[in-house]
Amino acid sequence: MKIAGSFLLLLIAVSGFMVVRTRDVTAQTLALSFYGLLLAVMFFFFQAPDVALSQIVVGAVALPLIIMLAIARMKHKEKTKSSEGGQ
Protein backbone atom coordinates (compact mmCIF):
# COMPACT_ATOMS: atom_id res chain seq x y z
CA MET A 1 0.00 0.00 0.00
CA LYS A 2 2.81 2.39 0.87
CA ILE A 3 4.67 1.56 -2.33
CA ALA A 4 1.60 2.22 -4.48
CA GLY A 5 1.07 5.62 -2.86
CA SER A 6 4.71 6.54 -3.34
CA PHE A 7 4.61 5.44 -6.98
CA LEU A 8 1.44 7.48 -7.53
CA LEU A 9 3.02 10.60 -6.04
CA LEU A 10 6.14 10.09 -8.16
CA LEU A 11 3.98 9.73 -11.27
CA ILE A 12 2.16 12.96 -10.40
CA ALA A 13 5.49 14.78 -9.95
CA VAL A 14 6.74 13.56 -13.33
CA SER A 15 3.52 14.47 -15.11
CA GLY A 16 3.53 17.93 -13.51
CA PHE A 17 7.08 18.42 -14.74
CA MET A 18 6.03 17.35 -18.23
CA VAL A 19 3.17 19.87 -18.24
CA VAL A 20 5.69 22.62 -17.60
CA ARG A 21 8.31 21.34 -20.08
CA THR A 22 5.95 20.80 -23.02
CA ARG A 23 6.18 23.62 -25.56
CA ASP A 24 3.18 22.90 -27.81
CA VAL A 25 0.06 24.44 -26.32
CA THR A 26 -2.28 21.66 -27.44
CA ALA A 27 -0.01 18.95 -26.08
CA GLN A 28 0.40 20.95 -22.88
CA THR A 29 -3.36 21.13 -22.45
CA LEU A 30 -3.69 17.37 -22.92
CA ALA A 31 -0.87 16.83 -20.42
CA LEU A 32 -2.69 19.13 -17.99
CA SER A 33 -5.83 17.02 -18.37
CA PHE A 34 -3.83 13.84 -17.68
CA TYR A 35 -2.28 15.55 -14.65
CA GLY A 36 -5.79 16.38 -13.39
CA LEU A 37 -6.86 12.77 -13.77
CA LEU A 38 -3.81 11.58 -11.85
CA LEU A 39 -4.63 14.00 -9.05
CA ALA A 40 -8.17 12.62 -8.94
CA VAL A 41 -6.78 9.07 -8.68
CA MET A 42 -4.53 10.23 -5.87
CA PHE A 43 -7.48 11.73 -3.99
CA PHE A 44 -9.41 8.47 -4.38
CA PHE A 45 -6.39 6.51 -3.21
CA PHE A 46 -6.01 8.68 -0.09
CA GLN A 47 -9.74 8.31 0.67
CA ALA A 48 -11.09 11.71 -0.36
CA PRO A 49 -13.71 10.78 -2.98
CA ASP A 50 -15.59 14.10 -2.79
CA VAL A 51 -12.43 16.04 -3.60
CA ALA A 52 -11.61 13.54 -6.36
CA LEU A 53 -14.97 14.07 -8.06
CA SER A 54 -14.47 17.83 -7.93
CA GLN A 55 -10.98 17.41 -9.36
CA ILE A 56 -12.30 15.31 -12.25
CA VAL A 57 -14.87 17.94 -13.16
CA VAL A 58 -12.65 20.98 -12.81
CA GLY A 59 -9.08 19.80 -13.38
CA ALA A 60 -9.56 17.09 -15.96
CA VAL A 61 -12.55 18.39 -17.95
CA ALA A 62 -13.49 22.05 -17.47
CA LEU A 63 -10.07 23.73 -17.34
CA PRO A 64 -8.60 21.96 -20.41
CA LEU A 65 -11.84 22.59 -22.31
CA ILE A 66 -11.73 26.31 -21.52
CA ILE A 67 -8.08 26.50 -22.57
CA MET A 68 -8.75 24.70 -25.86
CA LEU A 69 -11.70 26.98 -26.63
CA ALA A 70 -9.57 30.06 -25.92
CA ILE A 71 -6.81 28.76 -28.22
CA ALA A 72 -9.32 28.06 -30.99
CA ARG A 73 -10.78 31.54 -30.63
CA MET A 74 -7.34 33.16 -30.79
CA LYS A 75 -6.44 31.19 -33.92
CA HIS A 76 -9.76 32.15 -35.52
CA LYS A 77 -9.15 35.85 -34.75
CA GLU A 78 -5.61 35.62 -36.18
CA LYS A 79 -6.94 34.01 -39.34
CA THR A 80 -9.63 36.66 -39.87
CA LYS A 81 -7.18 39.45 -39.05
CA SER A 82 -4.62 38.20 -41.58
CA SER A 83 -7.27 37.72 -44.30
CA GLU A 84 -8.60 41.27 -43.79
CA GLY A 85 -5.13 42.79 -43.82
CA GLY A 86 -4.12 41.08 -47.04
CA GLN A 87 -6.94 42.55 -49.16
Describe the structure.
- The chain is an all-alpha fold and 87 residues long.
- The protein has one domain (2-85).
- Helix content is 90%, strand content 0%.
- It is built from 3 helices and no strands.
- α1 packs antiparallel against α2 (25-45) and α2 packs antiparallel against α3.
- The longest helix has 37 residues, at 49-85.
- It starts with a helix and ends with a helix.
- The relative contact order is 0.11.
- The model has no long low-confidence stretch (mean pLDDT 90).
Q: Could you name the ranges where pLDDT drops below 50 across 5 or more consecutive residues?
A: none
Largest sheet: none
Number of domains: 1
Morphology = elongated
How far is the first residue's CA from the last residue's CA? Answer: 65 Å
User: Which range does the strand content fall in?
Assistant: under 5%
Q: Which whole number gives the mean pLDDT? A: 90
The helix count comes to 3
Structural class: mainly alpha
**What is the radius of gyration computed over CA atoms, rounded to a whole number of angstroms?**
17 Å
| Portion in helices | over 70%
The total count of strands amounts to 0
**SSE topology string:** HHH
Task: Give the arrangement of secondary structure elements.
Layout lengths: L1 H20 L3 H21 L3 H37 L2
Helix pairs in contact: 1-2, 2-3
Structural features:
87 residues; mainly alpha; 3 helices; 0% strand; elongated
Summed up, what is this model?
By secondary structure, this protein is mostly helical. The chain has helices spanning 2-21, 25-45, 49-85.
